Amino acid sequence: MNRWEYTECELWRHSKGEVSIMHLFGTVAIGNTVLIFAEARHGKGGDANCAHDIYMKKSVDGGKSFLDNRNLLDSFGKICYVNPVPVYDKNIDRLFLFYAINKVNTATENYYIFSDNKGDSWSDPVDITVSLQNGGMPFNLPGPGHGIQLKNGRLLIPFWHRKFGPETELEKRGYCLSMLYSDDHGANWSQNGFFGEACLANESRIAETSDSLIWNARTFSQNRFEAKSLDGGLSWSEFTVSPLPPAVPCDASIVGLNAENSYENTVLFSHVSSTEERKDMEICISLNGGKSYDNSFKLMTGDAIPGYSDLSVIDETTVGLVHARNNHVLFSRISMEALTGGDFDKVSRNPWP
Questions:
Q1: From CA 57, how far away is CA 71, in angstroms rounded?
Q2: C-alpha span between 184 and 181 (Å, rounded)
Q3: Are β-strands 348-350 and 19-30 bridged in parallel, bridged antiparallel, or unpaired?
Q4: Could you tell me the pLDDT band of residue 98, with boundaries at 50, 70 and 90?
Q5: What is the pLDDT of residue 345?
Q6: CA of residue 260 relative to chain centroid, distance
Q7: Whole-model pTM?
Q8: Do 278 and 306 form a contact (C-beta atoms < 8 A)?
């Protein structure tokens, strides 16, 4: 890849056929293999008032091109599959995909499947619904985005929870977060306590830096909140306002690069940059482990509906981003030098039209 390069290719389009919108993207990069998962929403595209399939796209050339679409979880027009969240265990070469069935926005069923051949075939579903309801939470969703494997081998999947549905006053719904983790390569999963109640934390992401974990959460304000862990995610600090710039409340993505390659203590964060609408995607760049974000890489401006995105580290020179612009769901390959070099005028851009 050109050291100053930024390219895009199309994955899906909104409003194509019976699918009204593609939503909630999850990405994992395994060497040259890149897998992208998304909700394909039927009907009017709501969170729970229509059927959702789970689609998968696979690349075998590092995200330069993608094979044909695969309907991994077919709703048959009846089931609301939601929140596909992959996590890869490199120690045993196994890919897990967590997801849920949304039951009219009041309760969920929770599952995972796994693949030992990079998504070509999958196991039967493993039901984890009961274990997630131990805290009296009937509504439990993973991610969105992707889980991570720490340098010590632990697998982590963030979940968000809600005790009461949308008919209840916002502050009384019981929004909070927990972390599902495994220290035996997914044979057993444990859940830590509930966090983020005070700031109404819901959709969240996690990243590993050189000395800690960052848990970054969406709230109902323009500010995101975050907590840190020094023990691999078993305990967490209080959630406080993130140093990231304010933006319209929406899902976002965060990744720590030093855990993957030689960019020591670099953290990337993708989100819609507008404070009023879900538009104008950017990647905020921290060179000090997430303490501050002093630069940003602006993607081509435009409507970013649904506004969700997911970052992945393809190799030591390249980052991937799945996002949307003007009804196209796109995968961007961006060189690390383009992101962290500071001279953004040098970037050779080849965006989707």
A1: 9
A2: 9
A3: unpaired
A4: very high
A5: 66
A6: 17
A7: 0.95
A8: yes
Mean pLDDT for the stretch of residues 96-124: 96
- The answer, yes or no, to whether residue 343 has pLDDT greater than 70, is no
First to last CA, the chain: 21
The rounded distance, in Å, linking the Cα atoms of 87 and 97 is: 7
Whether residue 246 has a cis bond before it, omega within 30° of 0? no
Are residues 265 and 210 in contact, defined by beta-carbon separation less than 8 angstroms?
yes
274, 280 in Cβ contact below 8 A?
Answer: yes
pLDDT band at 283 (very low <50, low <70, confident <90, very high): very high
DSSP structure class, residue 172: G
Q: Which DSSP symbol is given to 129? A: H
CA distances from residue 50 to 46, 79, 104 in whole angstroms, order as listed: 6, 8, 9
d(CA 131, CA 142): 13
Give the Cα separation of 126 and 134 in Å (integer): 17
Rounded Cα distance between 215 and 208, Å, is 9
DSSP β-bridge partners for residue 182 = 155
Task: Quote the CA–CA distance of 97 and 104 in Å, as a whole number.
Answer: 22
Percent of the chain predicted with pLDDT > 70:
95
Q: H-helix or E-strand containing 131?
A: helix 129-132
CB–CB of 156/215 below 8 Å? Answer: no
Residue 18: other Cβ atoms inside 10 A: 12
Over range 46-71, report the average pLDDT. Answer: 93
Q: Using DSSP bridges, classify how beta strands 190-191 and 155-162 pair: parallel, antiparallel or unpaired.
A: unpaired
Instruction: Please provide the DSSP assignment of 132-160 as one string.
Output: HTTTS-SEEEE-SS--EE-TTS-EEEEEE
Three-class DSSP labels, 310-353 = EEEEEECCEEEEEEEECCEEEEEEEEHHHHHCCCHHHCEEECCC
pLDDT digits (tens, 9 = 90+) for 12-44: 999 877 899 999 999 999 999 999 999 999 987
